[in-house]
Design brief:
The structure holds two protein chains of two kinds. Chain A contains 13 helices and 14 strands. By secondary structure, chain A is α/β, with parallel strands linked by helices. Chain A folds into two domains: about 190 residues, Peroxisomal Thiolase, Chain A, domain 1, CATH 3.40.47; about 140 residues, Peroxisomal Thiolase, Chain A, domain 1, CATH 3.40.47. The radius of gyration of chain A is 19 Å and the shape is globular. The mean pLDDT of chain A is about 95. Chain B is an alpha/beta fold. Chain B has two domains: about 130 residues, Peroxisomal Thiolase, Chain A, domain 1; about 240 residues, Thiolase/Chalcone synthase (Peroxisomal Thiolase, Chain A, domain 1). Chain B is about 40% helix and about 20% strand. In chain B, a hairpin with a 2-residue loop joins strand 5 and strand 6. The radius of gyration of chain B is 19 Å and the shape is globular. Classes of the chains: A alpha/beta, B alpha/beta.
């Protein structure tokens, strides 16, 4: 099967603390910190969007891959915050990264699993022999309505992966997917903020799809949680990925390396892919990684990777994910509201 | 008036029933009650439901539910009295059998609350308060009961911890009830640290949002003796009273006058007093509600309801166990079904079928079901026949 030839992440510099949001809305910050295990989240600056963050992450992936970007024959950007409703993000990213002009390019949307969809399809095209290298990106500047529970978690970030026929830094051992028609979270055309089904988004949506996809995938491969050094799941908050991991039989030690949400927030399409980049930053050759995304609507994509010896020389070619996470500038709610377009300067 | 027995009881699963529509939830409970009664026909039915129109967009409920139960030709009537809907449905069924109009009457209650979000549920529930004078000004039910709690604390010295003890006790009881929505125990500290909803009430002072249904089959006691091999349970007291719907129209917001009046009627009819009751199910929609209600029912002295919870007097094994089912707090509170679920608990206790939470030697139980902040209340006394 295909392998990850290069990977990269991008985390914006700005952060806002849960207390700062809670202060404005008169809510109990402690309940979010304790109940959802969230401390702070990333905030995109006014000149940052899905396209700019995708480019940053993709350039990091190209640096690690050490290939001529002209060899990339597919570019897929998964996001639910593409800057344009009509006009692809992928064309801008492709030109900025410097891929061939004979590149197959598409934007994907499947709520929070659009990034893993891009990965899934690149792996398929590489395995099928249609392309030599494919670039898959998950990126979002997630929207959370002012005062909604989502505002405490909706964050920004991107992850990019280049897949090729070689084993690269991690071999793909398996892909798997599980999907149902489950209306847990949606945003209709012309609406700025998504709506969600409250508690319905938990058991019936997130937990059902991730646990089913991950357990079916392990059954398919005759593998058990103890066969993996790491596992990473979609991270809508700090609590859910740890809970679903425990439900599946993983231990905290297997989950922590990719668990970014307490200080990153939910980067939607970038969420579990960014967790995977943080794992690749620390994993050793031979270690196996299980990743399962989740997208509302709803579905989960699962992947099993085995890290190769090439990881050690590759990982230092670009900024590591947690290094980016540690570089931060806090903003207050006023600046955050301006950055996110919640308030606008009079013209 | 004929003596009336509770011949059969049934409950649906309770909880967040995402995959079941209201009609299925009701049919699950009604079928279980009919099977438990062992009857092959029912003469009429009353269904308690607070606001299916707002929760699932369905009115004309009794006809729909009788149809889905497979008894569509019988007289069927939906009863609405906010959270006391099922208690009133039970009383109407009782009156119909006692009067001789019908022999076998199905009484039930149902609510499907999770098809709307939190704001939708808050709005729907608030329709049980006075829209013009309470709700339009921003008051919600937790807010109204918080006012009662603050007044009770100011006047009687009831403590924040005593409120928590009500939740601790009911969750302990609920942990022994396989049908409880939240069958876990909580601690006083856990309650005090839970999310603040309306000062002083915290989330663990509040009953949850629940989908569920409960049903009972009533018939004349004489007929029950012929039909049933199970220990017989009869209705010996029935009281129903109303009060002002708006809290501010009351002389004393900590004294639930409708509960007091309904209890007086039920006690008088049964020829008993509070000291003769072995256990009770009461309307603990908020922890403060249980405190005020047990005072109104005469199980605790005025102002001492909090102490009763703290001392263990109202716990299983105490002199007057309250909410052995876990109450609304732990068992769940599908608003239109709660009144009949209380009857289910009473009947099981009196039959000796309550397992780990069985009240030893239970011969007489009381159920108190309340709408709004006590604008309507029913009290029923059931005894071993």
């Amino acid at each position: 099967m295909a392998g990850i030839i290069g990977y990269g992440a991008y985390v914006p510099r700005h952060r806002i603390k849960v207390e700062e949001i809670a202060k404005v809305w008169g809510t109990d910050a402690e309940s979010y910190k304790r109940g959802l295990m969230l401390k702070e989240k990333s905030v995109p600056a006014p000149d940052q969007d899905t396209i700019t963050m995708s480019v940053e992450a993709a350039r990091n992936a190209v640096k690690r891959a050490g290939i001529d970007p002209e060899l990339i024959e597919a570019v897929y950007v998964g996001s639910e915050s593409h800057p344009y409703a009509v006009k692809p993000s992928g064309t801008v990213v492709s030109e900025a990264v410097g891929t061939t002009r004979n590149v197959h390019c598409a934007d994907f949307e499947f709520a929070c699993k659009a990034g893993s969809e891009a990965m899934f399809i690149c792996i398929g095209l590489v395995d099928g022999g249609s392309i030599k290298y494919g670039l898959a990106i998950g990126a979002d500047t997630s929207q959370g309505a002012p005062g909604d529970a989502l505002e405490y978690s909706a964050a920004a970030g991107a992850a990019a992966f280049i897949f090729g026929k070689e084993d690269g830094v991690a071999k793909v051992l398996c892909t798997h997917t599980f999907m149902t028609d489950t209306p847990d979270f949606w945003r209709r055309e012309y609406e700025y903020y998504p709506r969600h089904g409250g508690r319905f988004t938990g058991e019936q949506a997130y937990f059902r799809h991730i646990s089913t996809a991950a357990s079916q995938m392990m059954d398919k491969m005759k593998m058990k949680p103890e066969d993996f050094s790491y596992a990473v799941f979609h991270q809508p908050n700090g609590k859910f990925p740890m809970k679903v991991g425990e439900m599946l039989g993983f231990k905290r030690g297997q989950l922590e390396a990719g668990w970014l949400s307490p200080t990153l927030g939910n980067t939607y399409s970038g969420s579990s892919p960014m967790g995977l980049t943080a794992i690749l930053d620390v994993a050793k050759p031979g270690e196996k990684i299980l990743m399962t995304s989740f997208g509302s609507g709803a579905g989960s994509d699962g992947f099993i990777f085995e890290v190769t010896k090439d990881i050690q020389k590759s990982r230092n070619a670009a900024a590591k994910t947690r290094e980016q996470l540690d570089k931060k500038t806090y903003v207050d709610y006023g600046v955050y509201a301006k950055f996110r377009g919640k308030i606008r300067k009079a013209s | 008036m004929r003596e009336v027995a509770v011949l059969g009881i049934g409950m649906s699963e309770w909880g967040e029933l995402w995959k079941k529509p209201l009609r299925q939830i009701f049919v699950d409970a009604a079928s279980a009650a009919i099977a438990d009664a062992g009857v092959d026909k029912i003469d009429s039915m009353y269904v308690g439901c607070m606001t299916s129109g707002l929760f699932v967009g369905q009115e004309h409920l009794a006809s729909m539910l009788s149809d889905y139960l497979g008894v569509s030709s019988i007289p069927a009537c939906r009863v609405e009295s906010a959270c006391a809907s099922a208690g009133v449905a039970f009383r109407l069924g009782y009156v119909e059998v006692a009067s001789g109009v019908s022999d076998i009457v199905l009484v039930g209650g149902v609510e499907k609350m999770t098809d709307v979000g939190g704001d939708g549920a808050t709005f729907a529930l608030a329709t049980a308060a006075d829209q013009e004078y309470e709700v339009y000004h921003g008051v919600t039910f937790p807010g109204l009961y918080a006012m009662v709690a603050n007044e009770h604390m100011d006047r009687f010295g009831t403590t924040r911890e005593q409120l928590a003890h009500v939740a601790v006790k009911n969750h302990k009881h609920g942990s022994m009830n396989p049908r409880a929505q939240y069958p876990f125990e909580v601690t006083v500290e856990g309650v005090l640290k839970s999310v603040l909803v309306a000062d002083p009430l915290r989330i663990l002072d509040c009953s949850p949002i629940t989908d569920g249904a409960a049903a009972a089959v009533l018939c004349p006691l004489g007929l029950a003796k012929k039909l049933s091999k199970k220990p017989l349970v009869k209705i010996t007291g029935s009281g129903h009273a109303t009060d002002t719907i708006a809290l501010h129209d009351r002389d004393d917001i900590t004294e639930f006058a409708a509960t007091k009046r309904a209890a007086e009627k039920a006690y008088k009819m049964a020829g008993v007093g509070p000291a003769d009751i072995d256990f009770a199910e009461v309307h603990d929609c908020f922890t403060i509600a249980e405190i005020c209600v047990i005072e109104a029912l005469g199980f605790a002295e005025r102002g001492k309801g909090g102490e009763a919870a703290e001392s263990g007097a109202t716990a299983l094994g105490g002199p007057i166990p309250i909410n052995t089912s876990g109450g609304l707090k732990s068992k769940g509170h599908p608003v239109g079904a709660t009144g009949i679920a209380q009857i289910v608990e009473l009947t099981e206790q009196l039959r000796g079928e309550s397992g780990k939470r069985q009240v030893k030697g239970a011969k007489r139980g009381l159920a108190q079901n309340m709408g709004g902040t006590g604008g309507s209340t029913t009290v029923h006394i059931l005894e071993v026949a």
